[in-house]
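Retry 2 of 3 after timeout on previous attempt. Resubmitting structure tokens to design endpoint.
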């Protein structure tokens, strides 16, 4: 199974009751909520990633099941392709809904899973720890994952920065990379509501150096939101933080919205 590595010396770390300690003696305390902070010391005092408002909105929205079809599909894709002792890392795990679903699917399929969630946001990891006590959670950059070379069977990359070079480093030979992206009509009606001139999402580059794209799946369906659910969805997207008050009020003053969810699930194999 994979082990977390020290952000200072890259040595393997062992977990004790309240801390992680590496072979060179560097220690990292586990927060009461369960995650360990592995951000570089110079960055540990700064706020990173999603704040409390964003995490709360995302958690409340996802808890109502609107994205369960996607989460269940992703978890099933991973569980069907993993070995008995599966080691999976969710790169940019956020508040942990997908991470916990992956763990549960692996366990239900008879596997002995180790699932690691990495995110730069401590607020997100606090929420993720509440979803499952069986996850290994660490605050770290997905650009420098705190795991050893070729130690993982799978990396999940769900609506987070796509960093194929780093993902290739940590995956075993023929390891699985699962990438989830928004397709062109994702949240189209929400954008029509907010923007005077809405635009379709541009296509994303599919190729990834060091990987073969082996399968592409699309998932599109509609959801209907009422009241505060509209703002919860809006606040968990980049659109909210890139719009002014006038555009935000359009969503705040809307009582009911039906919008399209349009996802791509792309599976890659390391070569």
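Retry 2 succeeded. Sequence:
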């Amino acid at each position: 199974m994979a082990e977390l590595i020290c952000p200072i010396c890259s040595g393997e770390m062992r977990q004790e009751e309240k801390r992680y300690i590496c072979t060179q003696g560097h220690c990292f305390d586990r927060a009461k909520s369960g995650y360990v902070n592995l951000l570089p010391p110079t960055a540990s005092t700064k706020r990173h990633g999603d704040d409390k408002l964003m995490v709360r909105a995302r958690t409340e929205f996802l808890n109502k099941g609107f994205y369960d079809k996607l989460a269940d599909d992703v978890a099933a894709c991973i569980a069907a392709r993993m070995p008995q002792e599966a080691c999976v890392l969710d790169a940019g795990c956020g508040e942990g809904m997908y991470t916990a679903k992956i763990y549960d699917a692996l366990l239900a399929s008879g596997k002995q899973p180790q699932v690691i969630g990495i995110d730069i946001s401590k607020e997100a990891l606090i929420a993720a720890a509440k979803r499952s006590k069986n996850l290994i959670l660490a605050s770290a950059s997905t650009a420098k994952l705190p795991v050893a070379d070729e130690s993982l069977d799978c990396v999940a990359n769900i609506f987070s920065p796509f960093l194929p070079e780093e993902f290739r480093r940590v995956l075993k030979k023929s390891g699985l990379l699962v990438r989830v992206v928004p397709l062109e009509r994702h949240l189209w009606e929400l954008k029509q509501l907010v923007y005077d001139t809405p635009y379709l999402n541009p296509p994303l580059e599919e190729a990834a150096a060091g990987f073969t794209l082996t399968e592409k799946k699309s998932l599109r369906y509609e959801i209907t939101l009422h009241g505060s659910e509209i703002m919860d969805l809006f606040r968990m997207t980049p659109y909210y933080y890139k719009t002014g008050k006038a555009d935000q009020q359009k969503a705040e003053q809307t009582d009911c919205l039906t919008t399209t969810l349009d996802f791509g699930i792309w599976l890659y194999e390391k070569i």
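Attempt log closed. The radius of gyration is 19 Å.
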